From TrEMBL:
Organism of origin: Thermosulfurimonas marina
Annotated positions binding S-adenosyl-L-methionine: C116, A117, A118, P119, G120, S121, K122, D140, D183
Alphabetical GO biological process terms: RNA methylation; RNA processing
Sorted UniProt keywords: Methyltransferase, RNA-binding, S-adenosyl-L-methionine, Transferase
Gene3D superfamilies in UniProt: Sun protein, domain 3 (3.30.70.1170), Vaccinia Virus protein VP39 (3.40.50.150)
InterPro entries hit by this protein: MeTrfase_RsmB-F_NOP2_cat, MeTrfase_RsmB-F_NOP2_dom, Nop2p, RCMT, RsmB/NOL1/NOP2-like_CS, SAM-dependent_MTases_sf
GO MF terms held by the record: RNA binding; RNA methyltransferase activity; S-adenosylmethionine-dependent methyltransferase activity
NCBIfam families xref list: nop2p (TIGR00446)
This protein's name: RsmB/NOP family class I SAM-dependent RNA methyltransferase
Length: 308
C-alpha cells in the first residue's frame, strides 16, 4: 500500500506548484473515486422512482450541485447491472465529465460535431440538453468504441445523433459545424487513484505523442467550424503539455479567441506559464478542475470561438 502511494508522489511531484492544496490532493488519491449517474431526461424527468428503485437495491442516492446528476454510495459498486441502467433511465458518468457540455452550451437546431465521442457520455448529454433537437455527428476513430457508443445511443433513446468513424485529424472539411467538441484522448491523470500505478508508469514511459495528436485534432476541429462557431477542448489530465500548450498552439496557428464561461463546479484559471515557457495570456480563461476540490475526476476545459 505505502509503496504504491510513494510512486504516485514521485509521479505528481512535478505538479506540486500548480496543484492547490497539494497535500490534500495526495490524500485524496487514497479514496476510491465517487460514483455518479446522470438521469436521462429523454426517458424520464421524474427522479423519484429511479431513486427508490436504486435504494431498494441497497444504493444510497443524493442530489448534486449539477441538475440531473446524482451521487451514489457505495462508490465501489457498479450501476451497470441495474434495471435502471438497462432501461436507459440512467447513465453512469463522473460529475466533471458534464463540464465540457456546459461550456459548449448546445442549442436545439445546431449542427454539432463530437470529434472524439465514444463511448458517448457527452454525445448523450448534448442530446439530453437539446431535448434531442440538435443534429450531432458523433465521431471516433475506433470502430469497437463506436459500437459501444451506438449501444448507448439506443439504450438512452437518442434520435438526433449519427456516427462517423474518421481519424479526427482527417475529418472531411466539406461540412461546417456550429459547434465542435474535442474531448481528447489524454494521459488521464485526473482520474488516477491509488492502486493504478501501472497506468501512471505507462503514461510516464510515453506511449505516444499525445500532445501532437491533440494539436492535430484541435486544429482540424477549428477548421470544421462555421465563422463565429464555438469550439470546446477538454481533457481529464493535469499535464500542461496536453492542456494549455495545445490551446496555445491553436491560438498561434488560427484566428481563435478564448471565451469565459460559467462553470457549475469550483474552477482554477488556466496557466499562462509552465516550466519557464509562457502561454498566451488569454489562457487564464481556460478552467482547471482539480479532483480533490470537486470530488470527481480532474478536468481541463477551454472554450474558444472562431473569429472569421
Ligand atoms: C476521452 S475519450 C472520449 C470520451 C467521450 N467523449 C465520452 O464522453 O464518452 C477519447 C476518445 O478519442 C478517441 N480517439 C483517439 N484518437 C483519435 C483520433 N485521432 N480521432 C478521433 N478519435 C480519436 C478514442 O478512441 C477515445 O474513444
Amino acid at each position: 500500500m505505502e509503496r504504491s502511494l510513494e510512486r504516485a508522489e514521485d509521479y505528481f511531484a512535478r505538479y506540486r506548484e500548480i496543484i492547490p492544496d497539494y497535500e490534500g490532493f495526495l490524500e485524496s488519491l487514497s479514496e476510491p473515486l465517487p460514483l455518479y449517474f446522470r438521469l436521462n431526461t429523454l426517458k424520464t424527468k421524474d427522479p423519484e422512482p429511479v431513486i427508490s428503485g436504486l435504494t431498494r437495491q441497497g444504493f444510497r442516492v443524493e442530489k448534486t450541485e449539477i441538475p440531473w446528476f446524482f451521487r451514489v454510495e457505495p462508490r465501489e459498486a457498479s450501476l451497470g447491472n441495474t434495471e435502471e441502467y438497462y432501461l436507459g433511465l440512467i447513465y453512469p458518468m463522473t460529475l466533471s465529465s458534464s463540464l465540457p457540455v456546459y461550456a459548449l452550451d448546445p442549442q436545439p437546431g445546431e449542427l454539432i460535431l463530437d470529434l472524439c465521442a465514444a463511448p458517448g457520455s457527452k454525445t448523450t448529454q448534448i442530446a439530453q440538453w437539446t431535448e434531442d433537437r440538435a443534429v450531432i455527428a458523433a465521431n471516433d476513430r475506433r470502430l469497437d468504441r463506436i459500437t459501444a457508443l451506438v449501444a448507448n445511443l439506443r439504450r438512452l433513446g437518442v434520435a438526433c445523433a449519427l456516427t462517423t468513424v474518421y481519424r479526427g485529424e482527417m475529418y472531411p472539411l466539406e461540412v461546417s459545424f456550429d459547434k465542435v467538441l474535442v474531448d481528447a484522448p489524454c494521459s488521464g491523470e485526473g482520474r488516477y487513484r491509488k492502486g493504478y500505478e501501472g497506468e501512471l508508469l505507462y503514461q510516464k514511459e510515453g506511449r505516444t505523442n499525445l500532445s501532437g495528436i491533440q494539436k492535430g485534432l484541435l486544429v482540424r476541429a477549428f477548421d470544421l467550424l462555421k465563422p463565429g462557431g464555438i469550439l470546446v477542448y477538454s481533457t481529464c489530465t493535469i499535464n500542461p503539455e496536453e492542456n494549455e500548450a495545445v490551446v496555445d498552439y491553436l491560438l498561434r496557428k488560427r484566428q481563435a479567441e478564448l471565451l469565459d464561461w460559467e462553470a457549475p463546479l469550483p474552477a482554477r484559471p488556466g496557466l499562462t506559464e509552465w516550466e519557464g515557457r509562457p502561454f498566451h495570456p488569454e489562457l487564464v480563461k481556460a478552467k482547471r478542475f482539480f479532483p480533490h476540490e470537486i470530488q470527481a475526476v480532474g478536468f481541463f476545459v477551454a472554450k474558444l470561438r472562431r473569429r472569421i
